[in-house]
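Technical annex, item 7. During the second reporting period the consortium partners agreed on a shared format for inverse folding records so that results from different sites could be compared directly. Each record opens with the tokenized structure and is followed by the designed sequence. A conforming record, contributed by the partner at site C, is shown below for reference.
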């Protein structure tokens, strides 16, 4: 059976990674919305509506929307979807597309700093500042671990090479996080303060 891919326009293919190619099977049943913690806190957030907009080509709304940055990737929606639609992965794709158009950079700015530092340190997470580091060292010591993981120069070099080889370094460096265009604060205007 040929698996159908979805497009929001002729120019831009949303499903570049071929992760959510069954989106058209959405029944608009709303189970995803009913089980979403973000929708509970933010009445304007509506995964079903976002899917409708993707399918109908209403890209203007979701590209500029602050809502697509609210998803927590908890996957509650995915677990209850009768059609097995991987909405969290759709979110990932929509965010990449928004980033390509310069939107959402206010959310990406901290990640850029974090990723470039991780590339240098060979550690995906290191608490900032002496206080944070001292706390982590204390916790590690209390559970019998070495107070601070020492990363060898060889391991750091390998980590760095992986960043470069897979294109992450260039992707992150090229992100222009300064002065991003403003986002629309409500997916359906007027529904949240
Ligand atoms: S639960 Fe699945 S089928 Fe129902 S609206 Fe959400 S994505 Fe569509
Ligand atoms: S993954 Fe996102 S959209 Fe799905 S239930 Fe969690 S917060 Fe809501």
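Designed sequence (site C submission):
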């Amino acid at each position: 059976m040929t698996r159908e891919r979805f497009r929001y326009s002729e120019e831009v293919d949303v499903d570049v990674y071929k992760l959510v190619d069954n989106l058209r099977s959405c029944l608009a049943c709303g189970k995803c919305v009913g089980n979403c913690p973000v929708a509970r806190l933010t009445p304007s957030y509506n995964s079903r509506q976002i899917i409708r907009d993707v399918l109908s080509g209403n890209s203007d709304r979701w590209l500029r929307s602050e809502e697509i940055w609210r998803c927590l990737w908890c996957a509650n929606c995915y677990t209850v979807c009768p059609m097995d639609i991987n909405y969290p992965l759709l979110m990932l794709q929509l965010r990449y597309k928004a980033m390509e158009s310069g939107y959402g950079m206010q959310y990406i700015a901290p990640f850029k700093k974090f990723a470039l530092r991780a590339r240098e340190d060979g550690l995906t997470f290191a608490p900032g500042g002496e206080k944070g580091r001292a706390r982590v060292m204390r916790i590690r010591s209390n559970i019998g671990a070495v107070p601070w993981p020492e990363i060898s120069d060889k391991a750091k070099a390998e980590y760095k090479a992986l960043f470069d080889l897979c294109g992450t370094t260039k992707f992150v460096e090229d992100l222009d996080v300064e002065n991003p265009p403003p986002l629309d604060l409500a997916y359906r205007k007027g529904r949240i303060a």
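The chain is about 50% helix and 0% strand. Residues 26-32, 47-48, 51, 81-83, 85, 87 surround iron/sulfur cluster (ligand 1) (CB under 6 Å). All partners now use this format for quarterly exchanges.
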